[in-house]
Design goal:
154 residues; mainly beta; Nucleoside Triphosphate Pyrophosphohydrolase; eight-stranded mixed beta sheet; globular
Length: 154
């Protein structure tokens, strides 16, 4: 039986930049080498909307204004206990609320996040990699079919 993990991520977009974090990494003995989007795994029997809000509040202390799913990806998992992962990327519209977050007032942020800020995904190393190659502005500003990066069949 295939075991799937569902991850929820926030696309917090402002002026061509995206809010991203660098997690603490034992591998690099400090911040990870790459940026990632805030979010995490969906809990059992948790709704998607409740999950994305919980994850963003846990990491940043900011209650997100969640708009809609704009991106997705599925891929083979490297996590122990999982075969594949599905990630859904939600557009969050209250970007200015993420300017000055206080990680000390979060349940997970201070322990997990080494750095945060708005970055240019075209010039910074960000994961997943497709964020640096697609036209994010188009997906943020226009209602269009959800972009799905399928790495499962490759």
């Amino acid at each position: 039986m295939t075991k799937r993990r569902i991850n929820l991520r926030a696309i917090i977009w402002r002026d061509g930049k995206i809010f991203a974090v660098k997690h603490f990494s034992e591998r690099w003995n400090g911040p990870a080498e790459y940026w990632a989007l805030p979010g995490g795994g969906l809990d059992d029997m948790e709704s998607l909307d409740a999950g994305i809000k919980r994850e963003i509040i846990e990491e940043t202390g900011v209650e997100p204004v969640v708009e809609r799913i704009i991106l997705g990806q599925q891929f083979k998992s490297k996590r122990q206990g999982y075969d594949e992962e599905l990630e859904l990327f939600y557009l969050v519209s209250n970007a200015d609320d993420f300017n000055n977050i206080n990680l000390a007032k979060t349940t997970h942020g201070a322990a997990e996040i080494a750095e945060y800020g708005f970055i240019d995904p075209k010039t910074e190393l960000i994961k997943p990699e497709f964020l640096s190659t697609i036209d994010l502005t188009d997906y943020v500003q226009n209602v269009r079919p959800v972009y799905i990066a399928d790495k499962l069949s490759k």
